[in-house]
Each structure stands twice: as C-alpha cells, then as structure tokens.
Amino acid sequence: MKIFKKVILFIIIVIIIALLYLIFNGYILYKESITEKSLADRIETLRQDENFTKFDEVPKFYSDAVIAIEDHRFFSHSGIDFIATLRAVKNNVLSMELKEGGSSITQQVAKNLCFTQEKTIYRKIAELFVVHDLEKNYKKEEIFELYINNMYFGSGYYNIYDASMRIL
Q1: SS3 state of residue 158
Q2: What are the distances in angstroms from CA 10 to CA 2, 7, 18, 49?
Q3: In the chain, how many domains are there?
Q4: Which of 57, 157, 160, 166 would bridge with 148, disulfide CB 3.0–4.6 Å?
C-alpha cells in the first residue's frame, strides 16, 4: 500500500508539472502577441473600420439568434463556458479526434484578434489570458460587437456588414 501511495503522488506531481509547463508556454505566446500589438490597439483598429457595426445597430432577433447558436450562456459566464468545454473534450476524446469546439464567443474573439487559426494547446491557453483581459475591460455588448465585426461569415466575408451587403 505504501508503494501505491508513492506512485499516486508521483503521478500527481507529473501532472502538475505538465500543467504548469503548458500554462507557462501559453502565457509566453500571449505575451508575445500583446507585445507585438496591444489588445486595445487591435480593438481600436477594428473599430476604426468605416463599416464597423455597433451592437445597437444589429436587430435584436439577430443577436439573440447568434448567441443562442454560438454561446447561449454568453451573458452568464465570464468568458469561458466550462460546460461547453467539457462537452467538447468528452466528445473529442470519445471520437479520438478534434471534431468539436467548445469555444465561447469571447474565446473566438480572442483567437481572431490575437492568434492564427492553428489548433494547438498553447494557443488555447494563450486565448484564456486574452479572454480574461477582454472580460475585465469590455462589456458583453462590446465583445459581441468585436465578434460580429471580426468573424468569418463564409464566401470571403469577414464581418457582418460585408456579409449583409455581399461586398468583397
């Protein structure tokens, strides 16, 4: 029984060290990203676009629909929907591939503002640091504005205005 306790303790220590390593590398990626260009500057650049669409310019039925489909707990969580994340992890583990995402609207904004679309654990962790910054410094309506003004709508459209006007 004594050896069993030592093995369990060893496994726990290894897991903690691995998690710290992942968090550290994610933090480094986050710092590199915001050092290159601050989050506030990235947001200001996006807001300066002549076609930037404000939250109150979007019909309520549209914002309600997007939130219902993309992140129905958007207004009640602090940037990370742990329920959706756990569901995605479970489904990905069961399927043995990355089939499903559990990213909240805020996480998608963080990814689109600061990172590439490359799927790595370091990027996902770095996203969490940006999510914290976004949730701390911006209202949910502002985060939703960033989302609809910096997401891919298909057919080459990367914001709601262009997609609604069908302009390339």
Answers
A1: coil
A2: 12, 5, 12, 54
A3: 1
A4: 160
Integer Cα distance of 38 and 4 in angstroms: 49
Q: Which one-letter amino acid corresponds to residue 56?
A: D
Taken in order 144, 146, 149, 150, the sign of the CA dihedral is negative
Digit-coded pLDDT (tens) for 67-115: 999 999 999 999 988 887 788 778 777 887 766 676 899 999 999 999 9
DSSP 62-112: HHHHHHHHH-TTTTTSSS--HHHHHHHHHHHHHHTS-------HHHHHHHH
Q: Report the CATH number at residue 36.
A: 1.10.3810.10
- How many CB atoms are closer than 10 A to CB 57? 11
User: Whole-angstrom Cα distance, residue 55 to residue 43?
Assistant: 15
Q: What is the pTM of this model?
A: 0.85
